[in-house]
Specification:
13% of the residues lie in helices and 33% in strands. It has 252 residues and is an alpha+beta fold. A hairpin with a 2-residue loop joins strand 11 and strand 12. The radius of gyration is 18 Å and the shape is globular.
Length: 252
Amino acid sequence: MSARVTSIHRFPVKGLSAETLASVDLEVDRLIPFDRRFAVAHGSAPVDPAAPDWHAKAHFLQVMSVPKLAALETVFDDATATLEIRRNGRQIARGELTSRTGCTVIEQFFAAYAKSDLRGAPKVVDLGRRGFTDVDAPYLSIINLASVRDLERVVGKPVAPLRFRGNLLVDGLEPWEEMGWVGRSLSIGTATLKVEEIIGRCAATNANPATGQRDLTIPHDLQRGFGHTDCGIYVRVTGAGRVAVGDALTLG
């Protein structure tokens, strides 16, 4: 096995576009910094912006139920926690997510953009060093690009790996090899990780990450071709360290 990291991604706002990183410093039992730290909650969600806690994804704007979110491009600035939203390269909203004024700007944008999909007035929420990931645990996700290519064989069309919204994309493995790694340890760069779970996939993967259109049936094709609806693995950081694009992945 000569697997290597080909790209690193984080999603500062749940449901919005990925940001690509050259490297990242990982801490034990923590997400990639700023990954899913923010989310846009439905007005009806039992989430208190003053003291938010983790809640299931149904309470937030997310691609499974609002696929046109995938058509938005976002840029996030760490130093100021400022989110810029673009469409077709043009800025359409900008706000600092740690200020009430900035959150109001972003909330007003989504109140108009996702009007027909919202349940009550949207509210930006901040989970600090935790994140609004799909599971209530500090897991990173790894996607095996060989598995995605094997899925393309079944689908009969290109499948963009970003449909799976993974943190670390790796190549150099056999297709679906990662499915047998639960409970095993990994070394990537100077960090160590433990494989916790296989990731089951939902209809969010049907949305094209470039256009927001539902143009594939990924869970159906996974079931049809492989007898399951899984793609990718969740891992937990067990030893702090730096991971960079090009780093080797070693199975312990």
